[in-house]
Amino acid sequence: MSRIMSARSKLDACIKGLEDSLGAPAALEDSIGGVPSATGPATALQLVDSTIATLEASLGLPPGAVLPLADAKGIAGGNTKHPTKAKEGVNKGERKKASKAASTAGVSSADQPDGTKVDLRVGQITRVWTHETADKLYCEEIDVGEGAPRNIASGLVPHYSLEEMKGRKVIVMCNLKPRNLKGFKSQGMVVCAVGALSDGKELVELVVPPEGSAVGERLSFEGLVGGPFEPVSAAQMEKKKVLDIILPELTTDVEGTVRWRDHALVSSCGACTAPTVRDGAVR
After folding, report:
1. In 23, 61, 119, 131, which residue has its Cα 20 to 30 A from 183's Cα atom?
2. Which residues of the chain have pLDDT under 50?
3. Is residue 78 part of a domain?
4. Burial 58-88 (b: 16+ CB within 10 A, else e)
5. Residues 60, 164: one domain?
6. CA–CA separation, 273 vs 258, rounded Å?
7. pLDDT for position 98
């Protein structure tokens, strides 16, 4: 707490010391602005007494009132915070709130169904080529409605020709951390249905969005309640091992419709399907 003292007593002491050093009371005009007093000259102490009394009366203070001294940070009795610093503090607080909101975006609630945590969208392959060093990999540029296409690598060379891949509409899982596949940075994966052939080999088919589905449309699982839910972030997908949880229950039914548990994967135009894989896995 700031030291306090009487303004009157401090000034009295200072002026008394001045008068003592001069050897006599200083004769001053009894005024503030230099206008002579009608009653003649007054000592410095008398003039100060009169000035202080006038100030006390104008401020509504009792005679001899003590006031707190202003400290280095501001005026006593007022806001001691520097206005610029105070404003900076407010802005910093707003930025902190915005940062916190951004960091929690995409985080699921405790009751969010696992199937809704995955960001599945309709995509279209705009460019495709065979990987330079990995003979089973296609490198694709896929439009998922983000302005710029995503680079995605898929091990589909044994299952589709280059011509069959060009221009296809596919289902893309978008909220996965980028992976470096043989020097190619893959930013997601295309969704396929997998079945077994009579010779024991795998039958792999790209899951097909229904006719009329718009590029970039986010898909959902039909019949889930409590939403709408937002997909989680790529970091949460990895941390919570979401794929490990949902893939065992992501399948095609007897009609080829992709389902998570009993819920069909749908766009606004209908269900997503595999051309021929029945009762197969989806990955």
Report:
1. 119
2. 1-5, 22, 24-40, 70-80, 90, 95, 97-107
3. no
4. eeeeeeeeeeeeeeeeeeeeeeeeeeeeeee
5. no
6. 6
7. 44
Backbone CA torsion sign across 107, 111, 112, 115: positive
For 84, the token pair is 């610029």
Q: How many CB atoms are located within 10 Å of the residue 19 CB?
A: 15
Q: Which of 273, 275, 249 is nearest to 260 (CA)?
A: 249
Residues 55 and 136 in one domain: no
The Cα–Cα gap between 145 and 278 comes to 30
Instruction: Please give the Cα distance from 177 to 203 (Å, whole number).
Output: 27
Number of structural domains the chain divides into: 2
Kindly report the CATH number assigned to the domain that includes residue 161. 2.40.50.140
Contact 209, 195 (CB under 8 A): no
Q: Is the pTM of this model over 0.70?
A: no
**Are 125 and 166 spatial neighbours (Cβ–Cβ below 8 Å)?**
yes
Q: Assess whether 136 and 246 both reside in one domain.
A: yes
